[in-house]
Design goal:
The chain has about 140 residues and is mainly α. The chain has helices at about 5-35, 40-45, 75-95, 100-139. It has two domains: about 1-50 and about 100-139; about 50-100, no CATH class.
Length: about 140
């Protein structure tokens, strides 16, 4: 019968940690793959660029009215022009970059989990198996 020692607890615990890292990284990669192939709407919902908010004074305007017939103050005109500039920049950024930064971030995180988790698991589980075989041979 095997004894539970601190060494065994350590080896099993770190084997479990390595296995958990492998599972988390693998699930993340599978999730990203599904988002890139089948569920593009989820990718857009989660990682879409945030559109600049409309100027607050436009909330009171009904858009079925002619926007040119509405009298705006100089400050409101500046705010509207700034919003138009921000919106054009937003559209160019979306067209140029798409989801590349978010995909790269997810890939690097999940690959890092695998790079760390696989060696931890393999090393510690190998030691567990060696110790188990050694105990069986001495019994």
């Amino acid at each position: 019968m095997s004894k539970f020692t601190i060494r065994k607890i350590y080896l099993y615990l770190f084997s479990l940690v390595g296995l958990a890292l492998i599972i988390i990284g693998s699930v993340g990669l599978i999730n990203l793959g599904l988002q890139l192939t089948f569920f593009r709407d989820a990718l857009e919902y989660r990682y879409g660029y945030v559109q600049p908010p409309y100027p607050y004074f436009l909330e009171s305007i009904k858009f079925d009215e002619d926007i040119n017939r509405i009298e705006l103050t100089d400050e409101q005109k500046k705010s509207l022009e700034q919003w138009k500039t921000d919106y054009e920049n937003y559209k160019q950024r979306v067209e140029k970059m798409g989801y590349t930064p978010y995909i790269a971030d997810t890939l690097t995180r999940n690959i890092a989990l695998l790079i760390v988790g696989v060696p931890i698991y393999i090393y510690h589980w190998g030691l567990v198996k060696k110790e188990h075989n050694r105990e069986e041979n001495t019994d």
